[in-house]
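Minutes, project check-in
Item: structure for the 142-residue chain
Input as provided by the requester:
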Amino acid sequence: MKYLKIETLEKGWHDKDEILLHAAFQLLVDFVEKEDPGRIVNWNSDESHKRAWKEIRELYKWWKRERPSRKSSLDDKRLKIPPMKFKKIPGSELGQMVEPDKKKYANYYQALKKHGRLEVKWEKEDQCNLHRLVEIRGFLWI
């Protein structure tokens, strides 16, 4: 394979930590979907192969089904999002953001806080599963 097409990243800029995660799991997806290891490899040959095959299937399922189904509190279509307003800074071409009314947009700020906690949880989950994938990388061959 000369090029790796990462199906889960949209065009545009992505930080390297995000690319690393998506590239690693794209390799897993390609292995499962294109190389058909369930048919070719005898995963019952010993305990290490059994454990690796179980991990491969669990990580594949997590990447393809569970991770994409994550829902953020900010996804709520009924959530009233405060407008971004700016006031001109006297004597300058620049503008300063005017902070929205926190009471009027209380639900948004609660959702934002909850989203922040979810992002921390998801980052830990991503890191844990990337580590799991690295641990079984020696089994990703045919």
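Outcome recorded: The radius of gyration is 22 Å.
No further action items on this chain.
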